[in-house]
Amino acid sequence: MSVRDDVSARLPGGDAGLIVAVLLVIYAAYVLIGVGLGYSLRGQLNTIAVLTFYIGVFAMLALALNLHWGYTGLFNIGIVGFMAVGIYVMALVSKPLYESGGAAQVGGLGLPLVVGIIAGMVAAALLGLVIALPALRLRADYLAIVTIAMSEIVRFSFLSGELQQFQLLGERVGFGGGSGLILDFTDPLEAFFGFFGLWDAYLGFVDSFEVLVPNNPKPVVDGLVYGVVLLFFVAAFYWLLKRTGESPFGRVLKAIREDEDVANSLGKNTNRFKIKAFMLGCALMGLAGILWLMTSGAVTPNFFRPRITFFVWIALIIGGAGSNTGSVLGGAVFAALLYQGPRYLKNLVDTVLPNADAPSGFGPAIAPLISNFDPAPLFFYTIDSIRQLQLVFMGLVLIWLMHNRPEGMLGYRKETAAGIPLTAARARGTAETDGGESASGGGSDE
Amino acid sequence: MAANPLPEVVPMSEAADAGDGDEPGVESGATSGAGAVGDAPTELNLGSGGPSVSEEYPLQVDSLRKSFGGITAVDDASFQVERGSLTGLIGPNGAGKSTTFNLITGMLQPDSGTVTFDGEDITGEKAHAIANRGLVRTFQIARELQEMTVLENMMLAPKYQRGEALWRSVTPGFRGDVIEQESELLDRVWNVLEFFEIDHIAEEYAGNLSGGQRKLLEMARALLTDPDMLLLDEPFAGVNPSLERRLLDHIHELREQGYTFLLVEHDMDLIMENCERVIVLHQGRVLTEGTPAEIQANEEVIEAYLGGNV
Amino acid sequence: MGIAETYTRGRQFAVARPGSVLLALVGIILLYDLLSGLATGQTSFSSVGSLVWDGLMRGLVIGLAGIGLSMTYSILNFANFAHGDFITAGAFSGWATTYLVAGLGRADVGALLLVGAGGSVFGGTLGIGVTGTPLAVAAGALVAGVATVVLALGIDRLVFKPIRDEDGITLLITSVGVAFALRYLMQFVFGSSVRGTTSQPPSISLYFVDGAVRINAHDIAVVVVAGGLMLAVHLLLQMTKLGKAMRAMADNEDLAQITGIPTERVVRSVWVIGGGLTGVAGYMFILWKGTLGFNDGWLLLLLIFAAVILGGIGSIYGAIVGGLAIGLTASVSVIWIPSAFARAAAFAVMIVLLLVKPEGIFSGRSTA
Predict the structure, then answer these.
(1) CB C297 within 8 A of CB C91
(2) Residues of A in contact with B14 (CB under 8 A)
(3) ipTM summary value
(4) B54-144+225-310 has which fold?
(5) Which end of chain B is more exposed for a tag (fewer CB within 10 A), N or C?
(6) Residue of C195, C326, C351, C365 best to disrupt the A interface, most CBs of A under 10 A
């Protein structure tokens, strides 16, 4: 554990430096492989944009989960429910008013995107409150089951015909049911730059990429810029949660995680602290859901299956619960290696062996291996099924982590919960005289 | 994660010369043995005024009753604790001492009966509300917050910290106030740490402390909540004799400053030598109460202890 | 004493006590609604009867699978999220056997072993059913049980045993990893399609007040198998030394260790009994509903959790009663609410019960 701490201590910028370094390594690896394969610049940039996108969303979600689990000890496995509420409520508020004959079956309230985003976050926080009020009294494993059941209830609700279309404030609105909801609000980037009156300037900026990426550079540049926006949000999450942790508020959360009775016996209304922390985390999960899906054009309830919740958990466990830096790194490593990595690998194989025909099922894939020792069909089927197998791999990684490194890749990290550094700045001459041997502990220098 | 915080006794080199055969020699109601340790900073300045209760008997327990399933743990217990006193609560195993503590401090809700603190009915209030009234407890098995340093443990305790409001801790422009108060609190924390002579382990993780150090930490932490009265649940369990002396000295010093103590303890000698009044619980009831001399002469008490230990 | 305190107490009261009052009120309203529906003829008795029957079947499967979950929950002290995929694994192994026995010589062995992956062979064409191919079904159910026992023991040895002493949350997270690996490995092998597994079973129509409630041969099979196995478990726990040891260990593991009950042996027995029941439950579930997909067990898992928690963790009778309650809720709730919310209603019942009576109907732990 001290080895890692040393790394972050030796790097310029400490933890921030460590994060930047890891990101650079990840990008370098992706670019090098791309170069080796002779990807076009456009392809390279696209790869980077997609990678950045997933690094961003998983880092944000892991940070929000770290507030719940790492700081407060709340076992929330209903993450995806809060994401769903975030984006759906945001869509309800920000979609344009219904017009008959349009592509969208239902409209929204036609309010600006910012209002929608805030409404989505507030709704996710309120759902958190509804769960927290009664459920925070429960044991951790019960809370887990309640939250995952809640996330499924949310999904069923958005799937149901009853909420597909309804009247709100005299407008025809709805959640679109199982067939999905078209997100026909203003393009978020346009809204963002337009807000500052910079949309035309942005378009000019995009055009200047014509030199690098001929033929319609806009999608590529949009993707990259949106990735940067997401990283900006990651930084904002990090800043907010670092401040939350390094404060008397965070200290109480830490105490709750350690021993709630003690915090109570010292006069802290622990339920109130837990509810606040839970709601903040839920709002951030809602925001992450919004940022994940707002540029995707449409959203369907079945996107929000519990597996995404577990992705976030894997990311957090890789990074190490309890550490904000670890959360970001875990999100990045998960996105790069476990989430995008296998898909990139498939593209790689497809490029190397462009004409390989994968069998349609396991039967035809394994039959040639048995009958005449031909492993090729099984290999191609494996590559073709990479999206399923990557989930198998994730499961194995999770088991391995719990066996070997439950504290995450940074090792056990203890971040001081105070607004000021808690060091022995005060002279302790009196104490030294008694030869104050203190039980030796893990590197406490922060 | 649930490492059992069983206290391991680590001898403190510093107080080794105190000798464990010594009798503390403190008569009931007499002056404390403070100063025996010598160079300890004797004045504790919490920076918050010290104890303040107006009632002659700040803690009054009336007809308290609690049963679990078919077993009645506390059965119609009534007693009161005098201001500024060190009162002992004794009784054989299973007499209901810990349950009584839990009922008083709101960790458990009584089936019937009332608890009055400083003239106000606090029966059934939440644990944190009772603590905020100035009635603070420690635990039988020291419950330090293991993965927090001694300083973090201590910084947690003070009441009504500005930064406990989330918005103030994160909002630029307001966080300054939080930081300012943190520095003030840290000063107070150092005072208390020095008073208890555990300032040399300030940066240590609480989980790494010895059993006795944990007990000291727990009492120091409880004091930082600015209490009026302290309920100590077996504060000497698993503590070596020299450290026990030190803890007792601290308790006597604090009692002289006006703090009220209610003490659960198994060691009869210790209770008899240090407490002004003793309450004896037996099978959930108050068997008797009085001065140590009275208790020692009481046939019923001897009976109860012998009967309870067979 | 001030407004704040009065408020706090009021809220405390509102959260804790009247939960049961509110619950009773909701029950009365629903009952009134049902009765008035029946009286006015808007709801027919026979449709309610069909829903209840459907719920009973579902409940038996959930209860049977729930016994295993409840046992591991109480004795190994963690919520096993891989339990749903044990169900699926049992179903696939059992149905591969059934296909093989029923279709040997009539179709490609590979296709049969993969339970007709990719539409290569259909259960309906093979005429699979408890009346048509009784031997194949019996063999399938048996293999489902045995294969799941082997799987559960293997996973315990490789995954759970090394971290036996860790806390419940660590084990829970690990079991999520197992669930992922198992489920998508099965998808890799058996494909992602949902296939029909049985031909139409013979059925009888029972006249019920104003119409018919249909009961088919597979319903009867579920009742017989589930009922028989539940009875067997009951006898095992009550009559044998092993059952006694299990109950002791569910109550207190340390105590069991001190008094010399060989706990690893008990743990193994738990996986054997729990795994076997789970595998058979998975097989019967597929027989009853007639379709099989890689997600079936996982989809059932949350309902099983609901049942186990409802009945009280550690109580096998609780698991059975909880299973029936959850099954009935999921089926019968469509009388009052849109069918899209049927599963949601079952979860809601669990959440409400957790809040009102967190220790479960059977007050957990002591009965094993």
Answers:
(1) yes
(2) 434-436
(3) 0.87
(4) Rossmann fold (3.40.50)
(5) C
(6) C351
